[in-house]
Amino acid sequence: MIICSALSPIRCWCLLMIAASPMISAETITAFQSDSFVESIGVNTHWAFTGVYSNNYATLRNKLGESGIRYVRDGTFSDVFTRANDLYNSFEIKTNMLTGRWIPGYWPAPLDPTQIDAELNDIKTLALQTVAAIEAPNEYDHSHGPDADWVSTIRNYSMLLYNKVKADPLLKNFSVIGPSFGTFETYHAVGSLDSYIDYGNQHMYYWTYWPGFSGFDSNGSYSIDWFLNTLAPEQSPSRKPIQATETGHTTFTELGGISEEADGKYTLRILAEFFRRGIYRTYKYELVDQALPDREGFFGLLRNNLTEKPSFRAVKNLIS
Asked: Does the record's keyword annotation contain Signal (predicted)?
C-alpha cells in the first residue's frame, strides 16, 4: 500500500503511476525526475481574443502563476507578445509560439507564406526571451477557407518555416513543432515532414472516454496506441518525439461532455498517461471557458466567471 499523506502530491502521483503499471522486470524500469513531469505540462491560452481573455488578464495571469504551470501555447500577435513577456518576467512561464498568419480578409482564409519573415522577426524582437518552441500552423485542414490546394500549402509552409528558423542565428536552437491537423486523413494526405520538424504534433481528444481506453468511440476518439503507432508515423516515419499541443475534455454535458468532477480526474490521467507514453509536452485545452454556446466553450481549467474547476485545483495540487 502506498501512503500519500507524508509525500508531496507529485511524488505520490509518480508512485501511483508506477504501482498502476503492469508488472515488469527491474531491467526495463526507466526512472525519471518528478520535475521532468512538471516540465511536460502546458496549457493553451488566447490572450488576443476579445471577451474573457482580454477583459480579465490580471486575474487570469495570477491564476496561471498560482497553478505552477510553466508553459502556455498561443499565437504570434502583439497582445500575445506583451502577455508573454509579462508571464515570463513574473513567473518564468514560457510560450509555445504558434505561427500562421493568413491573407488579410475574413477568417477562415489561406495562409500567407510571405509573412513568415515578419512573423519570425516579431518573435525575435518582441518576445525572444519567452519562446519555448515554434509551432507550424494549427489545424489548417479546418481553416484554409477558399484555398483549394491547401494540402500543398500547409506542406510547403511547414518546410519553409523550418528552413527559415534553422537558418536564423537567434532562432536556430529553438525546436520546431510540426503542424497539427483536425482530421486523421490529413496526416496521410500531407505525408512525411520528417526533415522539417523536431517534434511531431498531435491533438488527442477523448470526448466522453477516459484517456487510456483502447479502441474507437462514436465521437471519433482513438486510443493512445492508435495515435502513436498509426497516426504519428505519417508525419514522422523516423518516430521523432511528439508534443500534444491540444488535448482535454469539455464539460458541456449537453453535447459530448463530461462532468467537472470527471474532468478533474481525467485531466490528471491525461498528463500522467501521456508522459508515461513518452509525449514530451502536453498542452491542456484551455485555461478558461470562453462560454461559447457549444462544447467548444467549456474546455477550461477555470469557468468563464473565473472560478476554479476541479481540474484547475487538481493540476495545481499535483504540481505543488
From this structure: yes
Q: Of the candidates 186, 124, 188, 134, which has an alpha carbon nearest to the alpha carbon of residue 158?
A: 134
Whether 118 is in a domain gets the answer yes
**Residue 162 grid cell:** 523550418
CATH code for the domain of 116:
3.20.20.80
Contact 278, 295 (CB under 8 A): no
Cα-flanking dihedrals φ and ψ of residue 243, to 5°? -115, 130
Domain for residue 20, yes or no?
Answer: no
Task: Please report whether residue 88 resides in a domain.
Answer: yes
At 85-94, the pLDDT tens digits run 999 999 999 9
- Distance CA(104)–CA(59), nearest Å, equals 32
pTM: 0.91
Read off the C-alpha cell for 211. 484517456
For residue 216, give the amino acid letter: F
Burial 266-285 (b: 16+ CB within 10 A, else e): bbbbbbbbbbbeebbbbbbb
pLDDT, tens digit, for every residue of 173-217? 999 999 999 998 999 999 999 999 999 999 999 877 777 777 665
* Residue 248 dihedral angles phi and psi, to the nearest 5°: 140, 180
